[in-house]
Design a protein that fits this description.
heterodimer, A: 12 helices, B: Cytochrome-c3 Hydrogenase, chain B, 3-stranded antiparallel beta sheet, disordered C terminus
């Protein structure tokens, strides 16, 4: 497990960056295809996200007047690096070899960075649409981030560990946490949708209102990298939910050759993340965009309260579990 | 927070046509709206004065790509009245069928646009798909999807044969079912209600004061529809109801339009089933006698008026087009005050603006145009703008 070559392969090849990159583009395609079919459209071919990425990477980079070029280049890269790092701690085949106690908190923090990047981009762009979009991104973050944290910490409390791999192992011994925490699962899905800025929470990028929000002034590779970041966030988010609530890449029994465990685990991972994606895409298709003040009401009144109720229930269950 | 100016347009993803809003906002609340409308003046009125009546009709259809039949019909109707022609009932029925099909495709298109403005792209895709059924019917009847060119002075260009009537009738149940689906969606869909309810509210008094027309006015409870109050074509013979609503907001305007969709389907069905036999046009004289008329018509967006003056020749002396969008702009400026900036697109879209059709004049101010001085200075090879000889230009 601690062989440096293995670690390097894990980080770079599988299930690290290369796999992540391919899978992110594939999920992006699948998302677009599902949405298109539900909307009675044909939808893109499977290589479309990759083609888009290559095209945008090749496009000219335009610097708006008076914008700090260095920061404008760096911010998308930082966001991309953050979500890619976050993925290393999420179990894909079995345990993550990099897992350590408390990696859940690190992953959650790393996943906030893209939102910060959007806010900074909006702030730096010197464009009214970007500025409004950036402020909306930050406002929205304060609304969904608290219930998201609460919903994802509830599994940690129940399993008694702050490590994602540890929570997965706990579920292997007991059962999927979604059965104990249905409210938390729903809250986590809604907040993930908000985090990824998908309808009905695409408020910061509301095309018909503020053009492309914080991305308005981005061109070429900067835009490509930010889009890639969003696509990777989708993978990390759905993998995280699959790990914390749906048992992750584990099956409750052990198979005879050990490599078969890994393969089956990987397939289970694929199925579960695709299932999460299907739910997220369905939400996207079935809704329109709500307003930021309406999100504020809904977020703090209902979603945050629901997350708190879930945490309370987990504490009660834990207490009963120990005493009985 | 100080007031900020948010420029929207002439180019903006929410706008399908060029218009310039300057939204003066205080935080997320709108203080007032400044409008610059006319970017696409095409001189259609002047061009209409230079063509004879036969050639004017196709031209006037091109005032608008959506209510093309409206413009041609309202003009033909006016000229026929000046010429005192008796248009055969079959022609009137065919015109009514086309007019109501046009209203259906316009309202379906609007529903999609309104949904798109709030990011509800599924409804957008669905309504535009169902709109194709209407467009197919129009194409079968007239040969064209957009500019049907069905009107002539004194009647219509081509007749409907039984196969066309049956094909159109076979689509009616499908459309009815889809429209019912949209009624349910508008009444039940949570995000739609959140974004439409209480947004851009206008009372009946305000609607009357600001001269709103069409579904915009009817949503505020103004019970006025040219089709009923000044009947033309076959509307006096067809059983139908004026749809009004008391909500007065975007939600009300949506409900009125969906109600009108239902009524339109019924009108089309009635006309197709009861179309009288007979000729489809009468021969019109070449020249119209001297006269003037204000011809009115309930276009999908509201009351459309053509003022026509003839002078005894085969051309009009003057035709003045007042589109419903022009009548509705003041109500938009009023509705937007104190609303959230996120609601600008949907409030603007709620009147179903048709900007290029409204463009009746253009104002050029050469002196204040940035860049003109530079170009002129460059042409003369003189010094930079702002110097003294630029003033003399």
């Amino acid at each position: 497990m601690t062989d440096p070559v293995f670690i390097l392969l894990y980080i770079v090849l599988f299930p690290g960056f290369i796999f992540l990159f391919v899978y992110a583009l594939f999920l992006s395609f699948l998302d677009r295809k599902i949405v298109a079919r539900m909307q009675n459209r044909v939808g893109p071919p499977f290589y479309q996200p990759f083609a888009d990425l290559v095209k945008m990477l090749a496009k000219e980079v335009i610097d708006p007047d008076g914008v700090d070029r260095g920061l404008f280049d760096a911010i998308p890269l930082v966001a991309l690096a953050a979500v890619m790092t976050a993925f290393l701690y999420v179990p894909v085949t079995g345990y993550s070899p990099l897992a350590f106690p408390g990696d859940l908190v690190v992953v959650l923090y790393l996943m906030i960075i893209p939102t910060f990047a959007l806010f900074l981009l909006g702030w730096l762009s010197r464009n009214i649409f970007s500025a409004i979009g950036g402020i909306r991104a930050a406002t929205q973050m304060f609304i969904y981030e608290v219930p998201f944290f609460l919903a994802l910490l509830a599994p940690a409390i129940m399993a008694g560990t702050w490590s994602i791999s540890g929570i997965v192992v706990w579920q292997q011994h007991n059962t999927w946490l979604v059965f104990f925490q249905p409210i938390g699962f729903v809250v986590a899905l809604i907040c993930l949708q908000a985090k990824l800025e998908r309808t009905p929470f695409d408020i910061p990028e509301a095309e018909t209102e503020i053009v492309a929000g914080p991305l308005t002034e981005l061109t070429g590779r900067r835009l490509a990298i930010i889009h890639l970041t969003t696509e990777i966030s989708l993978v990390v988010g759905s993998a995280l939910i699959a790990a914390l609530f749906l048992g992750g890449p584990m099956i409750p029994w052990t198979l005879s050759p050990s490599w078969l465990n890994e393969v089956v685990g990987f397939c289970v991972f694929l199925v579960k993340t695709l299932a999460v994606l299907l739910v997220l895409s369905s939400i996207k298709v079935a809704t329109g965009r709500i307003r930021i003040d309406q999100l504020n009401d809904i977020g703090w009144k209902y979603i945050a309260s629901a997350a708190l109720v879930q945490v309370g229930m987990v504490l009660v269950i834990n207490y009963l579990w120990v005493t009985l | 927070m100080p007031e900020v100016v948010i420029p929207i347009g002439p180019q903006h993803p929410a706008l399908k046509e060029p218009v310039n809003f300057r939204i003066i906002a205080d935080g997320e609340k709108i203080v007032r709206l400044e409008l610059e409308l006319s970017y696409t003046h095409r001189g259609i009125e002047k061009a209409a004065e230079q063509r004879n009546f036969i050639r004017v009709l196709p031209l006037l259809e091109r005032v608008c790509g959506i209510c093309s039949h409206s413009h041609a019909t309202v003009f033909a109707k006016g000229i026929e009245e000046i010429m005192q022609l008796e248009v055969p009932p079959r022609a009137q029925y065919i015109r009514t069928i086309i007019a109501e099909l046009e209203r259906m495709h316009s309202h379906l298109l609007w529903l999609g646009v309104a949904a798109h403005e709030i990011g509800f792209n599924t409804l957008f895709m669905w309504t535009w798909r169902d709109r194709e059924a209407v467009q197919d019917t129009l194409e079968e009847m007239s040969g064209n999807r957009v500019h049907y060119n069905m009107n002539e002075i004194g009647g219509v260009r081509c007749d409907l044969n039984p196969a066309q009537v049956n094909a159109a009738l076979s689509r009616v149940p499908v459309l009815e079912e889809r429209i019912k689906k949209y009624v349910d969606m508008v009444n039940d869909e949570e995000t739609l209600l959140l974004r439409f309810r209480g947004v851009g509210r206008m009372s009946k008094e305000e609607a009357l004061k600001y001269g709103a027309v069409g579904p915009t006015a009817r949503a505020s409870g103004v019970d006025y529809d040219v089709r009923r109050d000044d009947p033309y074509l076959a509307y006096a013979e067809v059983p139908w109801d004026v749809v009004t609503d008391t909500e007065g907001d975007v939600y009300g305007r949506t409900r009125v339009r969906i109600g009108e969709l239902r009524e339109s389907v019924q009108i089309v069905r009635y006309c197709l089933e009861n179309i009288p036999a007979g000729p489809i046009r009468v021969d019109a004289p070449k020249n119209a006698p001297k006269g003037e008329i204000l011809s009115r018509y309930e276009a999908p967006r509201g009351e459309l008026a053509h003022y026509i003056r003839t002078n005894g020749t085969d051309k009009v002396e003057r035709v003045d087009i007042r589109t419903p969008t022009l009548a509705n702009w003041t109500s938009v400026a009023m509705c937007l005050v104190n609303q959230n900036i996120a609601d600008i697109p949907v409030i603007v879209a709620a009147i179903d603006p048709c900007l290029s059709c409204t463009s009746r004049l253009t104002v050029t101010n050469r002196e204040n145009r940035p860049g003109v001085a530079v170009v002129r200075a460059a042409r003369r090879g003189s010094s930079l703008p702002g110097s003294e000889d630029e003033e003399k230009l």
